[in-house]
Design goal:
269 residues, two-stranded antiparallel sheet, three-stranded antiparallel sheet
Length: 269
């Protein structure tokens, strides 16, 4: 029996092993996880499984991003989400609330951020809150039976709108300009479109890196913090936006390639 591939072992931990007497199972920290497909299918670079109440997914062809930390973050929020569901709060309400907050923060900074750079401290604060709200609406939808077709539309559209409004204020602050910030906004939207396109091919919604939504939130949050505390902004700092644009272009290519590969793999089976 083949050993567990390195990318599987990285995901499950160093103690994961195949049981010789039951090659269709994995021993993971003394807990048995049963894959939904035969072990031989691991060679296609994808694996879905579960360990008790915890699900995990490993993909050999996907660059890691901050999105991979989402399950741990969700675990911290789960008690609060249960109370919100009990109070009658819906996933779509949370989605729209997060978008409205992003619009208000963006408009505030567009109007007064250049004159009062301290307001950019709102960017890291709101991006963290928005990340929490995005996790909450997903958990409400999946774990409390609130999934809907409208919710799927709202989730994707509001993310693109929110990103645009939160990135736009940086165009008004030296040494950045409208052209490079506008390019980042455009490529960020195309990145999410590339991720969604996988669904039309019969593949999954792709979250490949290296510059996904969570990574962009970290980058813009750090930049907003730097501007907000009055950090120096030398002329060479304007190259940061072209670098972000390059990372986004790379992400788009990765998502397209991974989506095509996944679709081809499913067709072959």
């Amino acid at each position: 029996m083949d050993a567990i591939p390195p990318w599987i072992r990285l995901s499950l931990g160093p103690n994961a092993s195949i049981q010789p007497q039951r090659p269709d199972r994995i021993l993971f920290n003394e807990v048995v996880a049963v894959p939904p497909r035969p072990v031989e299918d691991w060679r296609d670079g994808r694996f879905d499984g579960h360990c008790g109440s915890h699900r995990f997914r490993a993909q050999g062809d996907r660059l890691a991003t901050l999105y991979d930390l989402k399950p741990r973050f969700q675990a911290l929020l789960r008690p609060m989400v249960g109370r919100m569901a009990a109070a009658g709060i819906t996933a779509n309400q949370v989605t729209l609330g997060a978008c409205l907050g992003s619009i208000l923060v963006g408009l505030l900074l567009i109007g007064w951020g250049a004159a009062c750079p301290t307001l950019f401290l709102l960017i890291p604060i709101w991006l963290f809150l928005r990340m929490a709200l995005n996790a909450v609406d997903g958990m409400l939808a999946r774990e409390f039976g609130q999934k809907s077709q409208l919710g799927a539309y709202l989730n994707e559209i509001t993310d693109v709108v929110s990103d645009a409004l939160l990135y736009a204020p940086f165009a008004l602050v030296a040494p950045f300009g409208p052209l490079e910030v506008g390019l980042v906004i455009l490529l960020a939207a195309l990145t999410e479109m590339a991720g969604l396109q996988g669904l039309t091919l019969g593949a999954s919604r792709r979250y490949d890196g290296p510059f996904g939504k969570s990574d962009r939130a970290l980058a813009f949050g750090a930049l907003g913090l730097w501007i907000g505390i009055g950090g120096p902004r030398p002329d060479w700092l304007h190259w940061l936006m072209p670098l972000m644009a390059l990372a986004l272009a790379f992400t788009i290519v990765n998502r397209i390639r991974a989506g095509l590969a996944e679709a081809r793999g499913k067709t072959a089976r």
